[in-house]
Design a protein that fits this description.
Strand 4 (83-90), helix 3 and strand 5 form a beta-alpha-beta unit. 36% of the residues lie in helices and 14% in strands. It is of the alpha/beta class.
Length: 346
Amino acid sequence: MLVIGTGLVLAAGLEPTPSITSLDGMAPVSVPFDLGALKAKWRQRVGAIRASGQLPLIDIESSFGGGKFNPARYATLMDEHGIALTAFSAEAGRWDERTRILMAADPARYIPTTGAGIPPWWPGGAEKLLTEVAEAVRSHRYPLMGEFEFRHYPSPRQVKRGENDRDITVPIDGPLGHRLFQISQESGVPFEIHYEVEDALLPPLEAMLRQYPKAKVIWCHLAQIRYQRRSTTYGPEYVRRLLESHPNLYFDTAFGGPTSIYPGSNEPHARIWDRESGRGIRPDWAAVIAAHPYRFLAALDIGGDRMDQVGEPAKVLRQFLDAIPAPEREIVAHKAAWKLLFNEEL
């Protein structure tokens, strides 16, 4: 093991960090992906981090921008913070080959993930995007589809900048939603949705989960309620009922820390924290997670505008994980993602 200046520990046996600082000019890896060979690399990496004494993390939901992404720097950050694998979606909103280029540059740290449904090509160019996504999961063996925005408020950074281009409403039970659910139903490959928690939006999602019982849906940002007055139904017991009624539903656990405030509403960003005691998460949320640990997935939600800001979300994620009982903690941290993606135990 190597102790670095921050006091964090790098695990012995980790793959060397790539020397490249940009993906520009690199050739993409050939497809279909050799998932058998990749999983062997990934298992070794998880084991090396575990052997160092850290709890390995699999980040199921993040995205990377092209020009701002430095593979050498990001690999170093992953190693420092015990992030075994990241499911990176290229932040383009349309299809490109950057994920294949990333897999050529550093195959031991990343799970290949298809393009996501984000502006400017979603929803305007969505039909073409979904055709390409369907081909990618069918022929190229991508194990995961990116995050598709059906209801999305502007991010905190965008609110502060006065930008509203991410204020998106796409009916989840409309043509695009049906197409996406059908791709997952037919392929068995999970996809992620950004779907703000509002009372009016819950029945359409439940109807889609019933209509497509073999579609694997990861609802991003557990307990992130940005406007409480719009959400009177969602809570631990509602989530418990969803999980027990819909075996095809999962949640990722990327959300703001205990003091995070959404500037659009000036309300707490995540409703999972025990703000009264200041100790971890609320007991009712902890109980639901402990009862269904394989349905909750660790996530960081890194984006192209904050590629160097890994430390803070990793700290928040570990603070959340520390509040979960030990046997279930390891499941949420990395075992649940592995089982969902590959249908096998890690």
